[in-house]
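question for whoever is on the cluster today: can someone run the full assembly for these? two chains, 589 residues total. i dont have access anymore since they changed the login thing
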Amino acid sequence: MAVLNRMDWYDLARTTNWTPTYVTEDELFPPLMSGAFGLPQNAWEKYDEPYKQTYPEYVKVQRDKDAGAYSVKAALERSRIFENADPGWKSVMKAHYGAIARGEYAAASAEARMMRFSKAPGMRNMSTLGCLDEIRHAQMQLFFPHEHVSKDRQMDWAFKAYDTNEWGMIAARHFFDDIMMTRDAISVSIMLTFSFETGFTNMQFLGLAADAAEAGDHTFANLISSIQTDESRHAQIGGPALKILIENGQKAEAQKRVDIAVWGAWKLFSVLTGPIMDYYTPLEHRKQSFKEFMEEWIVAQFERALTDMGLDLPWYWDIFLKELSETHHGMHMGSYFWRPTVWWNPAAGVTPDERAWLEEKYPGWNDTWGQCWDVIIDNVVDGNMAMAYPETLPYVCNMCQLPILGTPGKGWNVKDYPLEYNGRLYHFGSEVDRWCFQQEPERYAGHLSIVDRFLAGMIQPMDLGGALNYMGLAPGECGDDAHNYAWAEVYRALRAEKKAS
Amino acid sequence: MALFPITSNFEGDFVLQLVAVDSENTMDEVAAAAAVHSVGRRVRARPGQIMRVRRQGSEDFLPRSMRVSESGLKPTETVEIIWEAPKH
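^ ran it for u. tokens below:
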């Protein structure tokens, strides 16, 4: 029997809106869940997805993708890549799996909201496939790390990170709750798919795939490349929705959602991906600096995506571009100095050769970040380890939940952005974080940051042990220097040389 | 006498930190408490210089002997700890 070509029947088959008679349109599509922006069903029927795929096509393609990724894993299981990998690379895997894997299941729920509640039939179709994508990503990224759990307790965080109150995970949950778990279908399409996925997952998945291949970890490289092929499809869900909003006079609301989500995504990637690219990845395997990668793959592409859509660049674009040279250095120093509070072992990444690379990529690094590292390095070299660890909490931002930081040393520009709201003093890491909060204060005002919880007496005893217990970090899971401070030997040798001369 | 949390923004350091002081501490004692978490950890000591306290955004230092309870500082408010060279 002859089968019709896809495009001969696709448009008709996806025309699944009808006029409800037993219930009202608002009962069928509650505005709180649908986010219809006051537009009736027929306005949303103009939604035209740029990437059209049928269910049988989807199943065939996905089956092939799975077969590829799982067979590479099976073939390399006995290769001892994990055992022989640079400790910095292991930290990359641990940070990635913990921060991402279970978030993928949450994303499946967000896609399911678009699937059920969007008034746009085309969006419902695309997000059905998107939901299946996210379930696949969760399953793969839980299955792949599982073989390493028996070798390394920190790998268990692939499974448990989202259930803990570890500070980085509070930040990740706060962001994902904001953009995808507590938003209507249309806002999810704008904030999760257009802003976060189009804007940023390229970096985590493409950039990291290149680094993984360089590091010889072909299993991980194949896994995340496989995931990215899905992302690049379902990231397109938000574009046509933005088009409809702009055509119907809702540009300001659409722009606001983009601006909030892009900023939150930037902050999260500044702590997750920035340190990985510029400090953890062994020097000889680095392709581009984090800033270069951001400028080439994120800034240029996303600027084009925004303007093609008829949107403006976020009002804070200049601040964002400036932060590309700064913020992640602070996020790295913070996660390194507070290393017992993370579930991976941060690589310091500050040998003389690595510092020369940092100075080349970020002129002025030695006079700023380098000044703080000089003190840390001296303490490690001298064996004065008590001073190489913290004795208090960094103050964290009430929006992004990450430490409030800036440039140290000769370029010292650290600043708090406070706000008093309903009698409570909130602290923010930037003008933009504070602006995000002010767009809908009641949405965020009740949340307690890790510091707020500490001050409220929710963390007992009020010391490092109490904090680690609160964060779910059992002995053997707390982070420490990835290379067990072996890098300090270079500095000892330099000192000895200097003394001898 | 009561525990009083402040947020320390220490000159030359990279991050704000939570520091517990007492409402009856002087500004010199506040600076010393903040220094515990920055000096020798990520900021080099500056022998011969003293550390002064000011509100964020202010050019003026709070008097060295002023107590927290007299300063009008709010719990968790950010103070800047600034090195001051001795006056000759």
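summary bc i know u wont read the tokens: The domain at 3-84 of chain B is CATH 3.10.20.270 (Ubiquitin-like (UB roll)). Helices of chain B lie at 27-35, 68-71.
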